[in-house]
Design brief:
Order of helices and strands: HHEHHEEH
CATH topology: Arc Repressor Mutant, subunit A
Shape: elongated
Mean pLDDT: 90
Radius of gyration: 19 Å
Number of strands: 3
Distance between the termini: 50 Å
CATH class: Mainly Alpha
Length: 109
C-alpha cells in the first residue's frame, strides 16, 4: 500500500466518527482548546484528547501546547486529498445518472 493510500485510509477512518466530524466543524471556525472541543459534546478531556489524537494521526489537526493547555487547529490539506479521491467517483456517478436521465426522457416520448 502506498503512503498516499495509507494517508487516505487514516483520513476516512478519522472522518467516520461523528464526534470527530463535529470537532473538525468547530476547528473550521478557528483554533480551539481541547476543553472547548469537549464541552458541547459532553465528554471528558481525556476522551476528547483521544479523538484529537486520531485527527492528528490523519494529519487533519495540529496541536500546540502552552503549559497545560492544548490548542488545536485545522489542517485542511488531507481533506483536499480526500475530496480529489471522491471527485473521481463523482464523475463516474454523474455520467451514469446522465445516461439514466436520457433513457428515461427517451422512454417518455
Amino acid at each position: 500500500m502506498s503512503a498516499a493510500a495509507s494517508g487516505l485510509d487514516q483520513v476516512f477512518h478519522a472522518l467516520a466518527d461523528p464526534t470527530r466530524r463535529a470537532m473538525l466543524g468547530k476547528l473550521a471556525e478557528g483554533e480551539r482548546r481541547i476543553g472547548e472541543l469537549a464541552a458541547p459534546l459532553a465528554m471528558s478531556l481525556a476522551a476528547a484528547s483521544k479523538h484529537v489524537r486520531v485527527l492528528e494521526q490523519a494529519g487533519l489537526v495540529r496541536r500546540r501546547v502552552e503549559g497545560r493547555v492544548h490548542h488545536c487547529g485545522l489542517e485542511a490539506g488531507p481533506l483536499r486529498d480526500a475530496q480529489a479521491w471522491l471527485a473521481h467517483y463523482q464523475r463516474f456517478w454523474t455520467a451514469r445518472l446522465d445516461t439514466l436521465e436520457a433513457l428515461l426522457r427517451d422512454g417518455d416520448g
